């Protein structure tokens, strides 16, 4: 009998994982799964047991594991910050290490935004605006800014001063006769209307994922959307917080997903993909401007936590990010993403249940429209796992892919081939 309290007490996991290698997970009873989810929560973007990362972790453990963030310097921390900013097109120039989770990077970004306003004399600002169908984390503040129906029962615990505007989704929300450019502008106007409704002097920040992520399935913004959003934020002195916990650090084919959109936010949240599942680590990328506001104000960032910039986590993330920041890695992400999306489109483009394949780099999803979408999505996941040993994230209206960057073209072709045949077979057997 298990002494664990499982996330799903009525339906706990049944298989023991004993090792991982490259894109494969191995079970105790000898099964091998090709993991196109990067660890179910899309963090393990270099796969498992990457030799450069495991060597760096072993070396660091022998040296020192913990170096307090406030009290000491750690040369690896500086090196990681420098690396994380080395390919940034957005121009932000400070990295604040926040802890282990993306939720903590959300908490820290909110607090940094609030404090920078406070320390600049904008003392009425305390409201945050997010979008429907978003996910920002599991703490109460990051949860209230998120929009997961199964967590809404927590609403009595939710902190105040957090509101939402509609999701940004060209497919679902464009009106007849509207162009993408019109929609981008109208969608940003929804933010402006909300700021005006609350009162601009009271709004701290707008927080949003650069591409609408896990819930709706990798929906890139309409061209120009983020420029409109930036202008609205500037007009009312509202910070722009972009959440790249899911779509950052190379997963889109650029280190920062927002660099595809040519926008400079005030804060970028990073998390799960920083340490790629080897050791958890999170951070907020920001600017000297924010640093100066706090330096001239209270002179101390009002967010600190024991494991901020944890030395072992930083050493692991440095090794991970060195691999990711190579030209050949980013080229491979773009090439593999285009190849897999293109091949799925070619295989299913004329199928009546196929809506589209969309996303950026190695964050893409296939949307389906069937008589029972959720059943189709979960059956896709189950059939691919049981019949072909391939792991994908299928539910609701989509099957999401987050392949690790070390996936080979041959593995990608195997996955696409099995996906297309399973899609067609299920479509005719289920309905
Ligand atoms: C976009 C986004 N933001 C924040 C988070 C929260 O990260 P964590 O689960 O590490 O707290 C997630 C996690 O799935 C995420 O996808």
Mean pLDDT comes to 97
- Please summarize the sheet with the most strands: 7 strands, mixed
Radius of gyration, Cα only, in angstroms? 22 Å
The stretches of 5 or more residues where confidence is low (pLDDT under 50) are none
Query: What's the total count of β strands?
Result: 15
Description:
With 431 residues, this protein is of the alpha/beta class. It has two domains: 54-324, 3-Layer(aba) Sandwich (Aspartate Aminotransferase, domain 2); 330-430, Aspartate Aminotransferase, domain 1. Helix content is 39%, strand content 16%. The protein has helices spanning 38-42, 51-63, 75-86, 102-119, 140-144, 170-173, 180-198, 225-235, 288-296, 311-324, 327-348, 373-388, 409-430; strands at residues 17-21, 24-27, 32-35, 94-99, 127-131, 162-165, 203-209, 239-243, 267-270, 282-286, 354-360, 363-368, 390-391, 393-395, 398-401. The strands form three sheets. The chain has a seven-stranded mixed beta sheet, sandwiched between helices. It has a four-stranded mixed beta sheet with strand order 1-2-3-13. Strand 5 (127-131), helix 5 and strand 6 form a beta-alpha-beta unit. Bound molecules: pyridoxal-5'-phosphate. Pyridoxal-5'-phosphate is lined by residues 41, 101-103, 106, 135-138, 209, 213-214, 243, 245-246, 271-272.
């Amino acid at each position: 009998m298990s002494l664990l309290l499982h996330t799903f007490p009525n339906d706990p996991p049944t298989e023991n994982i004993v090792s991982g290698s490259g894109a494969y997970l191995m079970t105790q009873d000898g099964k091998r799964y090709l993991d196109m989810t990067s660890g179910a929560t899309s963090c393990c973007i270099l796969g498992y047991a990457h030799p450069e990362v495991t060597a760096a972790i072993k070396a660091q453990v022998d040296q020192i594991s913990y170096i307090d963030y406030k009290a000491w310097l750690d040369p690896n921390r500086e090196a990681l910050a420098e690396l994380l900013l080395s390919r940034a097109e957005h121009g932000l120039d400070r990295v604040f290490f926040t802890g282990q989770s993306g939720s903590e990077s959300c908490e820290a970004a909110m607090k940094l935004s609030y404090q920078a306003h406070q320390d600049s004399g904008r003392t009425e600002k305390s409201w945050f605006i997010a979008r429907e169908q978003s996910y920002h984390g599991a703490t109460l503040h990051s949860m209230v800014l998120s929009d997961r129906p199964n967590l809404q029962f927590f609403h009595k615990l939710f902190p105040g001063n957090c509101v939402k505007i509609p999701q940004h989704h060209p497919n679902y929300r464009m009106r007849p006769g509207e162009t993408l450019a019109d929609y981008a502008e109208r969608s940003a106007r929804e933010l402006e209307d909300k700021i005006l409704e609350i009162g601009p002097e009271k709004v701290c920040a707008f927080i949003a994922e650069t591409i609408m992520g896990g819930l709706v399935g990798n929906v890139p913004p309409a061209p120009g959307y983020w420029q409109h959003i930036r202008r609205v934020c500037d007009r009312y002195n509202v910070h722009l917080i972009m959440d790249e916990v899911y779509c950052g650090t190379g997963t889109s084919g650029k280190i920062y997903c927002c660099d595809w959109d040519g926008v400079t936010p005030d804060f970028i949240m990073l998390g799960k993909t920083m340490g790629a599942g080897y050791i958890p680590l999170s951070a907020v990328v920001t600017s000297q401007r924010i640093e100066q506001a706090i330096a001239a104000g209270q002179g101390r960032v009002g967010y600190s936590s024991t494991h901020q910039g944890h030395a072992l986590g930083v050493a692991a993330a440095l090794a991970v990010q060195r691999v990711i920041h190579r030209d050949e890695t980013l080229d491979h992400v773009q090439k593999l993403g285009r190849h897999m999306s293109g091949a799925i489109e070619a295989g299913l483009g004329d199928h009546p249940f196929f809506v589209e394949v969309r996303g950026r780099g190695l964050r893409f999803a296939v949307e389906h429209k069937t008589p029972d979408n959720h059943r189709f999505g979960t059956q896709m996941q189950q059939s691919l796992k049981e019949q072909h040993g391939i792991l994908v994230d299928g539910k609701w209206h989509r099957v999401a892919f987050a392949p690790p960057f070390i996936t080979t073209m041959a593995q990608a072709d195997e996955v696409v081939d099995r996906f297309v045949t399973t899609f067609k077979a299920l479509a005719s057997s289920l309905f």
